[in-house]
Design brief:
The protein has 58 residues and is an alpha/beta fold. The protein has one helix and three strands.
């Protein structure tokens, strides 16, 4: 069974690279992001993605 990493803000530039690094190391990656400044397409397709809502972001 793979270990799982929960990564917040994983749709940004840095977060997406961190996700890729963990995936290459054999981890299961779960990304949670509100897409306030990142992009969905930055999230590696192998990662599980959950988009959240930020009630304070405009």
């Amino acid at each position: 069974m793979k270990k799982t990493i929960l990564l917040t803000s994983g749709a940004g530039f840095i977060g997406s690279h961190i996700a890729e690094t963990y995936l290459r190391a054999g981890y299961r990656v779960v990304v949670v992001d509100n897409i306030a400044s990142g992009k969905r397409e930055n999230v590696p397709p192998e990662a599980v993605f959950y988009e959240t809502r930020n009630r304070h972001h405009r």
